[in-house]
Every structure is written in structure tokens, then in C-alpha cells.
Amino acid sequence: MNERINLHKRIWTTWGWIIWGGVAGIGGWLFLGRYDAHALAKGEMNHWLIEKLIYALLMGGFVAVAWIAVKLRQVIGARDRALDAFRGSQDLYRHIVENAHEMIYEVDMTGKITYVNKAAEKFTGHPVTKILGKRYTDFLPPEFRDSIHRRFIVQVSRLMPVQYVEAPAISGSGGILWLGHTVRLKIENGQPAGFTIISRDITERRSAEEALRASEAILKAVFHQAPVGMVVTDRAGRILSLNDRYARMLGMEEGRIRGRRFTEFTHPEDVLKNATLFGDLIEGRASSYRLEKRNIRGNGVPFWVRVTVSKLTLEKEQSFAIAMVEDIDEWKRAEEMNRQLQSIIEETTDLAAVTDPQGKLLYINAAGRKLLGLTGEESVSRLSPQAFFSPEAIPEVINTVSPRVISEGRWSGILPLTSRQGSTVFVSAVILCHRNDDGSVAHFSAIARDITEERKAQMALERERGLLRTLIEAIPDEIAIKDTERRFVLANSATVRALKKSRLEEIIGKKDEDLIPEPFATNARNEEEELLKTAKPVINAGSAHPRRDPVTGKILRSLLTTKVPLRNEDGAVEGIVVINRDVTVLRQSEEDKEKAILELQKALADVKTLSGLLPICASCKKIRDDDGYWNKIESYLESHTEAQFSHGLCPDCLEIYFPGSTAAKKHYEREREKRNQ
User: Fold this and answer.
1) What is the CA radius of gyration of the chain?
2) What's the rounded Cα separation, in Å, for the pair 537 and 539?
3) Burial level of 605, CB count in 10 A (0-12/13-18/19+)?
4) Which of 179, 188, 300 has its CA nearest to residue 250?
5) Which residues contact 136 (CB under 8 A, 6 or more apart)?
6) 377-428 confidence digits (pLDDT tens)
7) Quick one: which of 89, 105, 91, 118 has its CA closest to 186?
8) Are 327 and 249 a contacting pair, CB within 8 Å?
9) What angle do CA 592, 595, 600 make, to 5 degrees?
């Protein structure tokens, strides 16, 4: 375009010189004719020189015009040749553009497509006629239109000559293909006039790049999200790359680890062994190695790891090592604990055994071998636990124990076992069912303790308890046991009858307030709460106000109560023992006796009053009654009292009336002995 402008300028300049030369020649000729006439009239001497000078100038002008004409012809010939070359290059350019494999199109400043080559039909699947006049954004997916349009706006605002843009396009079939666009900004008269765009199909490259990026992302994710530590080192053992898991193992930031040798994080006692294996790997004497060693955390605490190291060889014979580091510190501790537990199991006095899901013995400890009469060298792999159950226990094991272990995972109880020597031992056993992750049975384990002697002692104790229970039931006293909340936990039949119940279950768990009337329940509560607080027993305490018949006043129920604290093995009070003895008859008898005594005392008091008032004869001892009659003393007393008289002779009268009698002599001898003592 600029060449065409320059050519036009040169043409107009040449014609200007020709015109100006012609005007100057004509003007000079006219002036010379007039000057000659004037000069002849005046007869000046220099006329000839001036004429020659003017002719010289005119000749020079004509020569210049001729030279310019020749040059103009050369320029016009060059112009024609340039125009022919331009037309040829334009045709060649159009041929190249139309037959190019890339899609070439032009877009004006409004975004409309003003030109597109035939390759666009192959790229977009649309004919050229349906492409021209449309906006370039119509062929972009909606989600990309704004971002691509902004790229074009930025190019215009910054007057960027060229930019490269990759964007998806919608094909005629509705599919998506990726294009790489080289966008050239068109400038006319110093202003943006549109864009010339060359687009190439980069779908396959894009797919390959995306697949590569996805593969790299997967590898990166595998490296950084691996459940074990991942480390890449160079030949010198310097850490080039590591994942987050390894950094967390060491308790340090990645920046503090990268670039340091792995031996810096290895326990000093394991450095030599690890370095030797690493050297063999790098020198090609081994392709990989596996090692359990101790690493050092950032805080100086050692921990166990399992390291698997392999050699990586890339181009140019570059060698690296990649290591997978697994934290096995807890596993090591568990392994050590298992060893300790196994030693404990071997040393324990209880039987410990493991069987497979079919019930075959896999393991039995030394105590179990001794209990069942097995020798230390005898294999148990083919033995079944049922071989050591007594015949009467096998049905229970098959029908009850085994189903419960499988369904509930646990069973505990007492089982009889038979040793190889035929002796029967009773064991308190716990059987467990262990399952795999999928829920299937992995194995069974059992722990059993020999309780044969304890069982014998327990049976003897049960017999004693039965005897004691029989004795308690036979005792007529009311005997009961209460807990610290004063609830009945045990009572004999006498207590049940006294509380007017027919069964023991009717009083178990209840208190006195639920069974006896007031105020007796309140008195019992206060008494027992004081006993639980002070642990001071109550011995043979009787009620000051027994229950009486409201009509006759006779005692209906009177108890003699003993309450003592019930203590456990540590001496703490854990209940109350209550013993009630029914003393109703005795209490009533005592009251009757006291009443009789009171009446007798009253009678005696009345008798003394009469003797103090009665007149008696000084000679014959007769008593005068209220009517004035004189009565014998015995007749008077018999009529006025309940006393009766029998007659006899005292020793003095006996001597008077019967002197020298044997009875009189014995009497006097006894009196003499009393005086001599």
C-alpha cells in the first residue's frame, strides 16, 4: 500500500516539473521578444549577452524536461512491472490462503467475520456462506465467549500486533474441537481496523497434553497423597523431593528437610547399615532393598520405619533413588507388647488356648498343657477341645455354648474338663469369637481357670448355708437381713408370717413403712438409721408401748428386738441383721403376775389396817367385830380374808401339854445348836 502511494507521488512530481518547465520556456520566449524590441529601440550594447543567457537557460530547461521525461518513462515501466508483480503475488497469496491447511479468516472491529478460506469448512463443518457475516463468538462455547472477547479487547487497547489464543470451537456436528489462534491486529491510517486470524487444529495435541497433565496430576497425587512417606534422593542421598506424609512423620516443614541427606534423620545406630545398602543400590550391586530402622523426629524422638528403596535411571545416565517410608512405630510397639503378652500367657497359671473356625486347637499354653495332662512336646494341631470335655458337658457345649459364642461373640461360665489321666477338673472359662473384616470367623480363644478346689469349698459352703438356712427356718424367732437402704433382702418364714404374708417375695425389696403400721414403722426407721450411722448394735430392746386390744387391754403383740450391723470383709457396714423374739405370752404373764402382786399387796395392806383397829381380848385372844360379838381370831380372819387356818402345837405348848416328848427334845436340841454357832 505504501509503495503505491510513493509511486503516485513520483508521477505527480514529474508532471509538475514538465508543466513548470513548459511555463518557464513560454514565459522566457515572450519576455525575450519584448526585451529585444525594447533593446533595439534603445540601442543597448549588452543585449546580445542577455539573449544568449536566456537561450542557455531555455535550453537547460528543455534538456531537464527531456531527462525527466526519460526518467518518467522508466518509472512508469517500473510501476507497470511492479503492478504486474503485485498482481502475481496477490494471486499467489490468494492461492496460498485459499488452499492453506489452516483456517484463515478476517474479523472487523464489530466481531463479524468478513473473510474466511475454504479450510474453515473442514474445521467447523459449516459452509463458507454460513460463516461469513456471523460473529466469531457464535462458534465458541458459551462459557468461553466472554474470556476470549476480553482477550481481543485487550489486544486492541494495547495495540498488540500479534497474540496467540487457544480456545474451543463448536463444529457443525455439535462437537468440540480445540483451535490455536494466531491473531494479528490490522492497522489502517494508524487506527485498528480488524483482525487477521490463522487457526490450527490442536485437538489431538490438546488431548495429549490433557492426558499428560492428567497423568502428571495422578502421579503427583499418588506421590503427595500416598498413605506412606515418599522421598526422592540423588546419588549422594540428598533429599530432592518428599511428600506431606514424610514431613508429618518427621514433624518438620518440607523446606527444612529438602536438600539434606537422609542419614541426618536416621538413628546413629542404624546409619552404617542403611548407608551400606544405599551404596550397593547406587553402584548397581542391588536394584532395591528393604530395611526396618529407626528415624529421628524433629523433636529428637526416635521412631521405627520400614523403608523400601528402588533405583531410578533417567536419560543421560542420571540416577536417583525413590523410597517408600512406612511408619511402623505403633506396629513395633504392638509387636513388643505381643511378645510380652505371649510371655505372660506362657507364665500364667490359667489355661489359654486358640482354635481355628472348625474348632481345632492351634495353640495352648504351658498351664493348659499341665491342666489337661499334655506333655510339652506333644503337638496340639490335630486335637479337638471336645476331647477334653466330660461326656455330660458335650451336649451343653454343642447346643448352648458354641451357638452363643458365634452369635454374641462371648460366653462365660463353668465347664467340667477331663484330663488325659481321666481326672475331672472344673474350670471357670471365657470363650471369645474373633472375626475378619468381612465378618467371617477368624478363630476362637479361651481362658480358663481351675476352680476344682474352689468348687469343692463352694459346695461345702453351700451345704453349710443350707444347714444354716434350715436352722434359721426352724428357729421360731423372726430373723431378717436388710441393706443399707433398710430394704428386706432375706427373711425366714417366721418373719413372713409375722408380716401376714404368704411368700418371701412379697416382702423382698420393701421397707417397714410398706409393711407395718405407724408409729411402729417410724420407731423402727429411727432406730435403724441410728444404727447405720453409729454401727452401735441394739440388744434385746422391747417396745415400751406394745400393741393391745382396745377392748380388753390385753397385749396383742410384743417383741424383744436385737439389731446388729452386717459388715463386709473390709469391716464396712453393708446391712442390718434383725432378730425379733415374740414375747407376747411372757409379757402378758408378767403383767398378770404384776397385777396379782399388786392385788395381794393391796389385800395385805387392808389386813394390816384391820389388825390395827380390831379390839382383841387380852386373855382368850378373841376379836370383837363391828356388831359387838366376840369371835375366835381364826374365825374372824377366815370370814374377813381368804386365809385358812390349820391347827397344831408349837414346841413350847408341846412341852407344856406333852412334857418329855421326842418332838419337844428335838426342838430344844436344834435351838441349842443355833445358839452355839
Assistant:
1) 69
2) 6
3) exposed
4) 300
5) 105, 107, 111, 112, 113, 197
6) 677 766 777 778 877 788 888 888 888 888 888 999 888 888 878 888 888 8
7) 105
8) yes
9) 125
